[in-house]
Amino acid sequence: EIVDRDECIFRFKSAEGEMVVATVVDDSVCAFDCDELFERFVRFVKSRLPIMENPVTVTELTNICGVEIERDLKTGKIKCRQTEMIEKVAARYGVDAGGQRYDT
DSSP letter at 60? Predict the structure, then answer.
C-alpha cells in the first residue's frame, strides 16, 4: 500500500505485524515490528534486485541521504543536520564563517 499518495513510502501489513518502508533513490529505511516480516521483505527484494546482495542492516538510523540523525530517547527529540553537505558547499564557494559554526 502506498501511504498518503507518497510514492516513496509503503506500508505492508500481515497477520505477523506491520512494516513501513521509505525509499529515496537508492537509500531505504524500514521500520517494523516483526523480524520475520522484515526477513521476508529482504528476500523478496534480493530476488528482484540482484545488485542488492548484501544490504546494510542497522538498528539505529543515524544517516540517510546525507542527513545526519540524532535521537534523544529520554526527551523524545530528533535532531537532523546536514553538516557534511554544508561544509562541502561552503568549501566549494569559498565561504568561511571564521571558525564559527551555525546551527540550521
Answer: S
Report the b/e string of 67-97 with b at 16+ CB within 10 A: beeeeeeeeeeeeeeeeeeeeeeeeeeeeee
**What does the DSSP 8-state code read for residue 46?**
H
Per run of 10 residues, the mean pLDDT along the chain (length 104 residues) is: 69 88 81 88 79 65 85 90 86 73 58
Neighbouring-strand partners of residue 10: 2, 21
What pLDDT is attached to residue 21? Answer: 87
Question: What Rg value do the Cα atoms of the chain yield, rounded?
Answer: 18
Q: Which three cell numbers stand for residue 45?
A: 527484494
- Taking the C-alpha atoms of residue 81 and residue 101, their distance in angstroms, rounded to an integer, is 12
Q: pTM for the complete prediction?
A: 0.57
